[in-house]
Amino acid sequence: MPKETNRRTVIKNIIAGTAALTTTPMLSFANSSDEKQNITLKGNINHAVCKWTYGFMSLEELCVLSKKIGIKAIDLVGPKEWDILKKHGIDSSMCNGAEINLVDGFAEPNFHEKLIQNYTEMIPIVAKAGYKNLICFSGNRRGMDDETGLNNAAKGLKKLIALAEKHKVTLVMELLNSKINHKDYFADKTAWGVELCKRVGSENFKLLYDIYHMQVDEGDVIHTIRDSHPYIAHYHTAGVPGRNEIDENQELNYPAIMKAIVATGFKGYVAQEFIPKKEDKIASLYQAVKICDV
């Protein structure tokens, strides 16, 4: 089947509500043998999905699918598309649009002027829209040692914290691996991020703990979550190795990880950020929600 025809067929099925989908929290989900299984969301995990990993769909289409699955929010959507989320009653769980990019971040003072300008403009916009989280990045190391990067990042972030506190917006720095995906990225260890949180000294600066990235760079995921959870505002998922589906073909025990997250009292979002490689990418998202719904 031609690629575009296949896409149209998939989207048509979503909108029409085929494959036994409903608009309630009751899910119908096709596993690898294409058998239908009904599951009921338990309500312990607030499910989200990252927009970019389902980029073969429009945001409108992803909203419709999310509502059918029981996903409450979509990550990494900027102001120009928030009206689409609001139309469908979908939250913006991690806003973006103030960052320069992944490599030019708060660890490098040369970027502070631009970053402070961007975030000073964006924080009130996020608050006015009724959202809470705004992503930020350390950027690359560029030969700096840990202490220098910590001091630089804390200095830049402290210039924004009063504004973030005023508007009840949390700046959330993502932890990314520097081993495979983001060479030279500074915030590649949880301990470094936690120390930065302590130096900034505000509940309005926390971490995005990406489970995939931290498994690649440091492992010990459950122990780290238990120890560091006061400094974590958000979670991302993906399978290791490969950053694909979180099924039985990868090494992480996601139900155990989700139980550990729930045990900390976490009330934020867990967003699926795997890159689906199976033919039925929509079934992969159902499966991910089912696996994580503990």
Structure commentary:
The chain has a domain at 46-93 and 107-173 and 202-211 and 225-292: TIM Barrel, CATH 3.20.20.150. It is built from ten helices and ten strands. It has helices spanning 3-16, 59-69, 82-88, 112-128, 146-167, 190-200, 211-217, 221-228, 254-263, 281-292; strands at 26-30, 36-40, 46-50, 73-77, 91-95, 133-136, 170-174, 205-210, 232-237, 269-272. The longest helix has 22 residues, at 146-167.
Lay out the secondary structure.
Elements lengths: L2 H14 L9 E5 L5 E5 L5 E5 L8 H11 L3 E5 L4 H7 L2 E5 L16 H17 L4 E4 L9 H22 L2 E5 L15 H11 L4 E6 H7 L3 H8 L3 E6 L16 H10 L5 E4 L8 H12 L2
Parallel strand pairs: 3-4, 3-10, 4-5, 6-7, 7-8, 8-9, 9-10
Antiparallel strand pairs: 1-2
Shape descriptor: globular
Task: Specify Rg, calculated over alpha carbons.
Answer: 19 Å
Q: Low-confidence spans: pLDDT under 50, at least 5 residues?
A: 1-5, 17-38
| First and last CA, distance | 37 Å
What's the number of extended β-strand segments? 10
Question: Can you name the CATH architecture of the domain at 46-93 and 107-173 and 202-211 and 225-292?
Answer: Alpha-Beta Barrel
DSSP strand (E) fraction? Answer: 15-25%
Helix percent reads 40-55%
The level 1 CATH classification of the domain at 46-93 and 107-173 and 202-211 and 225-292 is Alpha Beta
The biggest sheet amounts to:
8 strands, parallel
CATH superfamily name of the domain at 46-93 and 107-173 and 202-211 and 225-292?
Divalent-metal-dependent TIM barrel enzymes
Mean pLDDT: 90
Regarding quaternary structure, what we see is single chain
Q: What structural category do the secondary elements indicate?
A: alpha/beta
**Topology as H/E string?**
HEEEHEHEHEHEHEHHEHEH
List the total number of helices: 10
Domain Xylose isomerase-like TIM barrel: 84-275
Pfam family, one: AP_endonuc_2
GO molecular function: isomerase activity
Keywords: Isomerase
